[in-house]
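[Discussion] Sanity-checking designs against the backbone

I'm trying to build intuition for which residues belong where. Below is a structure token string of 68 positions. I'd appreciate it if someone posts a full sequence so I can compare it with mine line by line.
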């Protein structure tokens, strides 16, 4: 499980979910991919970039196809 409080950009993508403190890796990947148009990569920390790369490798099987 991913603690969303450690990843501010991911947390910002959960605007329609209240009181969510953890997401599965699969769900986090889906939120990044489906809501990528709302992401400002410059706001992502190195740790969050590393998380995204890990999710792309594991959940996306090396593929990241953002919507938007």
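Best answer:
Here's mine. Compare freely.
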């Amino acid at each position: 499980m991913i603690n969303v409080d450690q990843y501010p950009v991911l947390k910002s993508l959960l605007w329609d979910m209240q009181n969510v403190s953890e997401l599965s890796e699969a769900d986090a990947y889906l939120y990044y991919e489906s809501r990528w148009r709302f992401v400002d990569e410059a706001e992502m920390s190195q740790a969050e970039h590393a998380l995204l790369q890990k999710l792309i490798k594991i959940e996306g099987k090396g593929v990241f196809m953002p919507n938007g």
